[in-house]
UniProtKB/TrEMBL annotation:
Family note: Belongs to the CCC1 family.
Topology versus the membrane: Multi-pass membrane protein
Gene Ontology terms for molecular function: iron ion sequestering activity; iron ion transmembrane transporter activity; manganese ion transmembrane transporter activity
Recorded name of the encoding gene: LOC127742787
Protein name: Vacuolar iron transporter
Subcellular location: Vacuole membrane
GO cellular component terms, A-Z: vacuolar membrane
Record's keyword terms, sorted: Ion transport, Iron, Iron transport, Membrane, Transmembrane, Transmembrane helix, Transport, Vacuole
Superkingdom of the organism of origin: Eukaryota
Reactions accelerated catalytically: Fe(2+)(in) = Fe(2+)(out)
Length: 196
């Protein structure tokens, strides 16, 4: 009896409504994690001191969180205005208010994206904060980022009812590529003779 109720409840979940805030949250957390970990890896490619890595990670967290909030707000608000205009062209005024409630909320999307970005930035910052040895610190940032990417992929797959392996693989490969490219290009840039 309880299994039937669970199946019935799952059928009632509106994944399209959930997708609006889920996309903003997962994108924000993943972007915060990958951006900050990549910044820290890039700085770590040319500087061995922890202070430089942590400062770059913190600045990236603040700047990225602000950028995500305004970008998400503008994007969702534009989508909202387009959908409202389209609704007004197709329906009568009484229906407009009911339909507006189902539309994406720009402020909610901005807050979800910015807060999730900052939360995503925490693991590599905390992971590197207590490690003095340069090589160990780089490996800890990579390990913490890898574990966090897997967890974010798993959470996204559960909340979105999507295949877990595919969700995790996408995040892991994308995150690893971003960190590797940032590390390699920063190292290459340093080899050109510029002083840091």
């Amino acid at each position: 009896m309880s299994e039937e109720k669970e199946e019935e409840e799952e059928k009632k979940i509106d994944y399209s409504q959930r997708a609006q805030w889920l996309r903003a949250g997962v994108m924000g957390a993943t972007d915060g994690l990958v951006s900050v970990a990549s910044l820290m890896m890039g700085v770590g490619a040319v500087r061995t001191d922890a202070k430089a890595m942590l400062l770059a990670g913190f600045a990236g967290s603040v700047a990225g969180g602000c950028s995500m909030a305004i970008g998400e707000f503008v994007s969702v608000y534009t989508q909202y205005e387009v959908e409202v205009a389209q609704i007004k062209n197709k329906t009568i005024c009484e229906d407009v208010q009911m339909v507006k409630k189902a539309l994406p909320n720009p402020l909610q999307a901005a807050l979800a994206s910015a807060s999730c970005y900052c939360l995503g930035a925490v693991p590599p910052l905390v992971g590197a904060a207590f490690i003095r040895d340069y090589r160990t610190r780089i490996m800890v940032v990579l390990a913490v980022a890898t574990l966090s990417l897997f967890v974010f992929g798993w959470i996204g797959s559960v909340l979105g009812n999507t295949p877990m392996l595919r969700s995790c693989a996408r995040l892991l490969l994308g995150g690893w590529m971003a960190m590797a490219i940032t590390f390699a290009l920063t190292k290459l840039f340093a080899f050109t003779g510029l002083q840091f």
